[in-house]
Automatic annotation (TrEMBL):
Keywords: Cytoplasm, Nucleus, Proteasome. The keyword Chloroplast does not apply. This is Proteasome subunit beta. Component of the proteasome, a multicatalytic proteinase complex which is characterized by its ability to cleave peptides with Arg, Phe, Tyr, Leu, and Glu adjacent to the leaving group at neutral or slightly basic pH. The proteasome has an ATP-dependent proteolytic activity. InterPro entries: Ntn_hydrolases_N (IPR029055), Proteasome_beta_3 (IPR033811), Proteasome_bsu_CS (IPR016050), Proteasome_sua/b (IPR001353), Proteasome_suB-type (IPR023333). It comes from Acrasis kona. GO terms for cellular component: cytoplasm; nucleus; proteasome core complex, beta-subunit complex. PROSITE patterns: PROTEASOME_BETA_1, PROTEASOME_BETA_2. Component of the proteasome complex. Its main location: cytoplasm. It is found in: Cytoplasm; Nucleus.
Length: 205
């Protein structure tokens, strides 16, 4: 078993029309043993940026605190919120700094950029190599099933309601096919006006 699969988990980010969404499951496990079912793997960084992470739970928590510190320092220096693309570079750089003893996590960055709220998503591997896309990114133990579901259901220019429906269906159908993730989910939908948070109920077996 890869150390990235030790705690399980699934995260997916999708682009819509002037909106983005990030969804994750809520299971926290140790291999095949479920320990808890309230562990979110997606986090708001500020009003227009989200960070999702799958991988080793201790590294995820440590890295999240590091990123919060760096984002706060950026805001103090620049007197503005960091752009999602710049935050993606910050995440990539922080992971590459530890390349000889890497943090075992896979981040997903999603947000809205500039005055025109251009949607942005990207992901990196555990040493910070970035992947940019204009549709969706997936990470975690359920990523194979997520790829198939997202390719089947995603379509361009979705409104926030449609985006929520599609990303929810993709997540819930995929985690049912992976014993290391599931137990419900949480979805963040980011629009130019607000951040919407919704929880999903899933199978509890």
């Amino acid at each position: 078993m890869s150390i990235l699969e030790y705690n399980g988990g699934a995260v997916v980010a999708m682009l819509g029309k002037n909106c983005v969404a990030v969804a994750s499951d809520l299971r926290y496990g140790i291999k095949n043993t479920t320990v808890g079912c309230q562990m979110r793997k997606a986090y708001p960084i500020h009003q227009k940026c989200l960070l999702g992470m799958a991988g080793l739970a201790t590294d995820v928590q440590t890295f999240l605190e590091k990123m919060k510190f760096r984002v706060n320092m950026y805001k103090l220096r620049e007197d503005r919120d960091i752009k999602p693309s710049s935050f993606g570079n910050m995440v990539s750089s922080a992971l590459y700094e530890n390349r000889f003893g890497p943090m075992f996590l896979e981040p997903v960055i999603a947000g809205l950029e500039g005055d025109d709220n251009t949607p942005f998503i990207s992901s990196t591997d555990l040493i910070g190599a970035q992947c940019f896309t204009d549709n969706f990114v997936v990470v975690g133990t359920a990523s194979e099933a997520l790829y198939g579901m997202c390719e089947s259901l995603w379509k361009p220019e979705m409104e926030p309601e449609d985006l929520f429906e599609v990303i929810s269906q993709c997540l819930m159908a995929s985690v049912d096919r992976d014993c290391n993730s599931g137990w419900g989910g949480i979805v963040y939908i980011l629009t130019p006006d607000k951040l919407i948070t919704k929880e999903l109920k899933g199978r509890q077996d």
